[in-house]
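protien #1 (seq + structre)
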Amino acid sequence: MRVGVVANIVGSLLVFLGFSMLVPLVFSLYYGEDLAPLVLSSGITLGCGLILRYYTAPVTELNHREGYAVATLGWVAAAAFGSLPFILSGATPTIIDAIFETMSGFTTTGATILADIEALPRGILFWRSLTQWLGGMGIIVLSVAILPRLGAGGLQLFQAELPGPVADRFLPRVAATSRVLWYLYVGMTLLQTILLLFGGMTFYDALTHALATMATGGFSPRNLSVAAYNSLYLEAVLIVFMFLAGTNFTLHYQLLTGRRGALWRNAEFRFYTFIVLGSTLLISFNLWHHYYGSFFPALRHGAFQAVSFTTTTAFTTADFDQWPAFSRGLLLLLATFGASAGSTSGALKQIRVLVLLKYSYRELQRLLHPRAVVPLRLGEKTVPEQVISEIVGFVFLYLTIFILGVLVLTAFNIDLVTSLSAVAASLGNIGPGLAAVGPMRNYLAFPPALKLFLSFLMLLGRLEIYTVLVLLVPDYIREVRLFSDRQPSRYQR
């Protein structure tokens, strides 16, 4: 692996990030706030990015090892430099808190250490929401869209970053695919902003909530999240767009290009819809009988939280930590499943759950008919055995990391319910959990070491585990080369 080439691309990402920090200045100017934190942060980030680009080898083509390195190191660099506005503005008590908040943003997790969100400057809060929006579709995918000079190597970034077991290219060129994804992403964000404005939100609130919704991130500029508005219309709009954000963006493209039956022909989408509707009814009936006493409020809050947790957005309209055990347990299970592959949601993804269910049923059939050849099908397609093996391996690794994560938190004397939900929320990029990390609480009281550990779990979950862990494999480390097969840097020339 050529470290100089990787550093050059990370430098390009930092340049883009530095310019992005100037966007919140619009709101800082409008509300008469101090501009220095954002301006200084932008200058530092831009400067470091330009230095990396100038003193490293220009990009020619990436191999898959370098693609993994760029995806992981790009996210780490984004979290490190993206924390500067929080640090310089004093929004977070410590540097580690700032890194936690920023990693939570870029990974679209939505976990926070902020106790009084509304007390912070609007420009800083907009940057907080913008980190989720940028991380939702992926800074790396954006870089492929705007940096066609990556050539074939762009595919390595696209596959390393895009969530899900398979990264679909519905156009011949990766850059063209990435651009279409971003056109859809931006268009849906703008449409949702307009619809939220009709519901009485200010432009600032509408835009920040739209950014967080399409990223399935869940950051809100209000302390009570969506509950602060107490509006059935706003909740309905958010439910629709959370569901759309949790749908494979390839299907959105196919629908817009005239393939109207594409959605329902897709086995994962049908399963995703069934899970959302089924869990909505189960939670609503449970709340009706054991919490609210009437069906309408049970359905209203049950539907919102079911969609919010399935898509790993985790907006809240109620203190679900006070709900019956069945509803809380089902929400945690939904957050572990996640939404569709190729969407901006986190967790396992519905397609993996569906394949595992079909795989388990196939094994039961084999017990009854040992000589039968039973292919595993999703709709009209047969799933290759290699893909099944990869999914089984991924789920096993996911659960192993989850169990080890819970053990780490309990070693710090964190109670079991908090440990289970905090690890599930971090690894699944969900945000709030239960007990000490419930919807009315935050992660501020966690020790610094645990905040860094949970930040690492967020990164693992966002980049689908393998992209990060492969960098730690001894064979990979041995192949890291600073200057072999290099082109001379601009400085050396």
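ok now protien #2
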Amino acid sequence: MTSYREMQVELEKLHLESERARRLEKGAALERIRALIAEYDIQPSELGIVRPRREDATASPAKYHDPLTGATWTGRGRVPRWLVGKDREQYLIK
């Protein structure tokens, strides 16, 4: 009878083998896809990869300004280094 530990070792081996096979098959698939794209001059937009920009989408205005460097930040996304650990009120654009 196979022990639990032996089954776990065998399972790990199978995972490694399947990942190796997936990488090889993916590489071959990518080569075929690239060849077809080149042969038929397929554009990304034809594949639905590039989405048109929404007309109502606009850039957010800057809310914060660094007087030393002139850098700005909208208040969205990651906090810039020049503002980390500082009082944001001091850099608020009025």
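Residues 4-47 form one domain.
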